Every structure is written in C-alpha cells, then in structure tokens.
C-alpha cells in the first residue's frame, strides 16, 4: 500500500515538472513576440516621424494664415522643444519668433526666441536673420538704440554681406541718441569702407547735418556742397541746398542764403517749410536794412 502511494506521488511530481518545463518555451516565445512588436512599432514611429512633424509645421503655418497666432507659436515651439534635430526645427523656432514679433508684438519674447535660434542653430540662414531681427526690434520697436548698436555691430563683426546698410543703422542709432559726433564718424567710416554703396549720397548729406548739429558750420557747408556737386540728381540734393541755406543764414550770410532758397522754389519737396524759411530770411534782411 505504501509502495503504491509512493508511486503515485512520484508520478504527480513528474507530471508537474513536465508541465513546468513545457511552459518555459511558451513564455520566451511570448516575450520574443512582444519585443518584435515593440521594434515594429518603434520602426514605424521613426519612419513616419518626419512626415508627422512636417504636417504639424504646415498646420502651424495655416494657423498663422487664419490669424490664430498664439496657437501657431505653440506648435512651432513644440517642434523645436521635442524634436530639435528635425530638419525644419530651425525654421520652426524662427517662425515662432517672427509671429511673436510681427503679429503679436511681444517683442521681448521674440528677442529670446531669435537668440535661441542663434544659440541652437548657429550655422543656419535663420541664425543671421535672427541676429538682424534682434537689432531691428531694439532700434525700431523698443527704441533702445544702445542695444541696437551692440546688435548691429555684432552683425558687422560677423561679416554681414550688406555691411553698408548695417553700418548705416549703427550711425543712425548714434544719431538718434543725439551723439552727433559719433554718428558722423560712423557715416564717414561707411563712405571709406563702402565707396560704391548706393547709400553714399544720403550718407554724405547726413555727415553735413551732423556737422551742423555739432556747431561746425564751415565743415557743414563743405559737406553740403560736396553732396550737391557729386550727386546733383540725387533726392538729397534739394535737402543739401536747403541745409546749406540754413548754415549760411546762421552765419548771417543772408543774401547768399536767400538766393539758394529762391532757387529751390518748385523743386523742394516741403513747400511749406521752404516758404517759412524764405520769409524768415527776408524778414531778417529787412530788419538789417532798417537798422542801417
């Protein structure tokens, strides 16, 4: 009897052992299948990622077109944050800055986004455009001419292809700070470094104005005359003649001033200002005659 019980127990244990051993291959097969499934899903995700990100970028552009600027910014930012190495990531970040700047007028946020473009994608076309936009915001939107000068100078130092225009912006920024001497120096540098620039006539005129505001009337007269003689067909010629007449009036050379002003009739764009200045000079001439 005991022997029979022992046989049955041994048989049961053998059956349990066989069942246990037979389940191991099934477990590994399940694990392997799950791994293959995960790899397939991952491969599909990576294979279609560029398409989905491109579709998201296009959606952002459509939102800009529809006037949904805040949503567009979030889409563009999301592309950069989550997929910074995606081929459109630099453009997406730049577009977020553009929307903040031109549509939402959130200038400080735009500056931060532009600076991030410079930092994260320094060798792209967007990086140089971003540098320029930072300078433009400081100068034209925030009227922070000191920071604008720093930003424009950075562009010059990096070898900007339109250096003459950038140099002009530097000079103009100094002018707006009422630092006329430094503005003149910057304009003179532009003439020296970019003699073939289409800006030279206007630059020479601005040099004359700067001299005038500095109180250097003789230098101002000479600079105005250079503008008139070298660029007779320029829109700045009439302005230079008006400026010269003003300098001569300030030096009490009233007849010479009046002659120039009368020659400007019919050609000077601001007829009202010309008439006012002409009457002023005539009045001063009349007072001098009465005093004699």
**Distance separating the two termini:** 158 Å
Mass-distribution shape: rod-shaped
What is the second-level CATH architecture of the largest domain?
A: Alpha Horseshoe
**What is the beta-strand fraction?**
under 5%
Low-confidence parts lasting 5 or more residues at pLDDT below 50? 39-46
Whole-number radius of gyration? 38 Å
Number of helices: 13
Major sheet: size, sense and barrel closure?
A: none
CATH superfamily of the largest domain: Tetratricopeptide repeat domain
Order of helices and strands: HHHHHHHHHHHHH
The helical percent reads over 70%
The average pLDDT is 89
CATH topology of the largest domain: Serine Threonine Protein Phosphatase 5, Tetratricopeptide repeat
How many independent structural domains? 2
Number of strands: 0
The CATH class assignment of the largest domain is Mainly Alpha
Strand pairing plus helix content: what structural class?
Answer: mainly alpha
């Amino acid at each position: 009897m005991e022997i029979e019980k022992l046989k049955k127990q041994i048989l049961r244990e053998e059956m349990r052992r066989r069942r246990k051993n037979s389940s191991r291959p099934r477990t590994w097969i399940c694990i392997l299948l799950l791994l293959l499934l995960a790899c397939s899903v991952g491969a599909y995700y990576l294979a279609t990622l560029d398409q989905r990100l491109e579709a998201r970028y296009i959606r952002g552009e459509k939102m800009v077109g529809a006037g949904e600027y805040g949503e567009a910014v979030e889409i563009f930012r999301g592309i950069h944050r989550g997929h910074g190495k995606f081929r459109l990531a630099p453009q997406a970040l730049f577009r977020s800055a553009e929307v903040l700047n031109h549509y939402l007028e959130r200038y400080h946020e735009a500056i931060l986004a532009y600076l991030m473009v410079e930092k994260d994608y320094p060798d792209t076309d967007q990086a140089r455009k971003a540098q320029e936009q930072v300078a433009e915001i400081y100068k034209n939107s925030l009227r922070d001419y000191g920071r604008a000068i720093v930003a424009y100078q950075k562009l010059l130092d990096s070898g900007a292809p339109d250096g003459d225009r950038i140099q002009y912006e530097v000079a103009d920024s100094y002018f707006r700070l009422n630092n006329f001497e430094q503005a003149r120096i910057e304009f003179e540098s532009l003439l020296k470094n970019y003699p073939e620039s289409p800006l030279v006539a206007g630059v020479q005129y601005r040099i004359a104005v700067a001299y005038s505001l500095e109180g250097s009337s003789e230098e101002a007269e000479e600079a105005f005359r250079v503008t008139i003689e070298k660029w007779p067909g320029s829109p700045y010629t009439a302005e230079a003649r008006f400026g010269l007449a003003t300098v001569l009036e300030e030096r009490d050379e009233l007849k010479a001033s009046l002659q120039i002003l009368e020659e400007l009739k019919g050609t000077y764009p601001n007829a009202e200002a010309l008439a006012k200045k002409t009457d002023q000079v005539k009045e001063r001439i009349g007072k001098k005659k009465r005093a004699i």
